[in-house]
Design brief:
Blueprint (H helix, E strand, L loop, with lengths): L1 H8 L5 H11 L23 E4 L2 E4 L3 E4 H6 L27 E7 L2 E6 L11 E6 H7 L8 H6 L11 H4 E3 H6 L1 H13 L2 E5 L7 H7 L13 E3 L15 E4 L11 E9 L2 E2 L2 E5 H11 L1 H9 L1 E8 L2 E8 L1 E4 L3 E4 L17 H15 L5 E4 L6 E5 L3 E5 L2 E2 L5 E8 L1 H12 L3
Parallel strand pairs: 7-8
Antiparallel strand pairs: 1-2, 2-3, 4-5, 5-6, 8-19, 9-22, 10-20, 11-19, 11-22, 12-21, 13-18, 13-20, 14-15, 16-17
């Protein structure tokens, strides 16, 4: 009787499952009142599969284009096993490849493709897929990028910036992977991080920078000095007040991360200033929506015309980036002549720039700190603006050493940190 009961109740399972249940039933012992031992293990159920035109329907609602599936086979004939690069071009994938066999059990999908599913490959081909991988990549609202899904940038002011969390110890940063990861996460989330206790050596800044990416070699060199000098080629190399700005916006690809390492700071004044551009953007977007649109649409030229060099690039002040919040470009000292827009009055452009500057300079947005010898600050150059108060060089020396890391290299470090997490 038990066998009949199992057969009736498990008709929806495959033969393998039924066989397991029947074999298990032979091991059961009964009394007239209760079942003394019985164990049934239910295997993964088979997913329904159906071809509809150029799509494969998996289960109830996952529809996947067949060309996309064939293109994303991960076997060693499609992805080189050592260098992980594709061995075919998407241009050569059949627009509606033929499936001759298919099955799906649990989280695995197996497909046999007819010959010529990819041009010049005249043999049949078997592909095995992980269904979770398909869902994460094909049925996704945004690009599948750990920097996007786990970066979680958070706009801050001085009331919400977790100051204790963004200060890290040099030795721990250099030698402890967890602390190094904290620095990477701080830069992704807040665009700002400090390393304390760095050796007072001129190459310390590049050693720190090398931990988060390759050092950018610009016309300033691999590293450069920030201190007052006669006949300075850059306003940063004076003792004057240095307003909030970003560096090298006259490059097509400005640096992503900037580092400044303090070797000495004994002069009166010379505090460092930092503002989260995201916070100012959010304020202008909410309180001055017309200005927000103008700042996104009117291109502003930036240039460096000095010392036998002429760099130039033109871009709007704010660039919406759905995958990374925003890109911001603001550097008044290096702004070139504005070309009057044809459809927007210049008065509105200057109003928008003024309102954005006012948002940046709201007292609650300004993090001001006097860096001590051994402190090194790292910040996202296209998000966090930096500046400096005026200092008196007659009262002592102020010497910072700087370097740059590209945004792509930094995001590479973040992705590798989170790839399997």
């Amino acid at each position: 009787m038990l066998v009949n009961t199992i057969q009736n109740s498990l008709k929806h399972l495959n033969r393998s499952a039924l066989s397991q249940a029947l074999n298990q039933s032979k091991k059961c012992s009964f009394s007239t009142t209760k079942l003394t031992s019985f164990k049934l293990t239910t295997p993964f159920l088979t997913n329904s599969l159906k071809q509809v035109n150029d799509e494969l329907v998996i289960g109830d609602n996952l529809k996947v284009n067949k060309s996309w599936l064939r293109d994303h086979c991960k076997c060693e004939n499609c992805i080189h096993p050592s260098n992980q690069q594709k061995l075919h071009s998407s241009c050569n994938v059949h627009t509606n490849p033929t499936i001759t066999q298919m099955s799906s059990t649990g989280n695995q999908l197996k497909i046999t493709w007819a010959p010529n599913s990819i041009q010049q490959r005249d043999e049949a081909h078997e592909s095995i897929y992980d269904l979770d991988w398909i869902k994460n990549h094909f049925d996704a609202d945004i690009e599948h990028d750990p920097f996007i899904s786990k970066g979680s940038s958070k706009a801050w002011d001085i009331n919400s910036l977790p100051v204790k969390d963004i200060y890290l110890n040099y030795e721990e940063f250099m030698n402890d992977n967890k602390v190094w990861g904290d620095a990477i996460n701080n830069l992704a989330k807040y665009g700002l991080c400090f390393i304390r206790g760095a050796p007072l050596k001129e190459d310390s800044v590049t050693q720190i920078g090398s931990k988060i990416g390759n050092i950018m070699n610009t016309f300033y060199g691999l590293s450069w000095n920030v201190k007052s000098e006669a006949n300075a080629k850059n306003i940063a190399y004076t003792s004057l007040d240095l307003g909030l700005h970003m560096d090298l916006l006259y490059f097509e690809s400005p640096p992503g991360i900037q580092l400044l390492h303090c070797l000495t700071n004994e002069a009166k004044g010379g505090d460092s200033l930092f503002v989260d551009g995201y916070k100012a953007i959010e304020y202008v977007k909410e309180h001055h929506p017309e200005s927000f649109e103008i700042l996104q649409s009117v291109p502003i030229p930036f240039h460096y015309l000095n010392d036998g060099r002429y760099y130039r690039y033109t871009r709007p002040t704010i660039k919406s980036n759905p995958n990374e919040h925003y890109d911001l470009f603001f550097a008044p000292p290096f702004q070139g002549p504005i070309v009057p827009p044809k459809d927007i009055p210049l008065s509105k452009l200057y109003t928008a720039l003024s309102q954005f500057s006012a948002a940046l300079h709201q007292p609650q947005n300004l993090y001001q700190v006097k860096m001590n010898a051994g402190d090194c600050v790292l910040f996202a150059n296209r998000r966090v603006l930096h500046g400096r108060t005026e200092f008196d060089p007659s009262t002592g020396d102020r010497w910072l050493k700087g370097t740059y890391v590209s945004w792509d290299d930094f995001k590479n470090k973040f992705r590798t940190l989170h790839y399997n997490n």
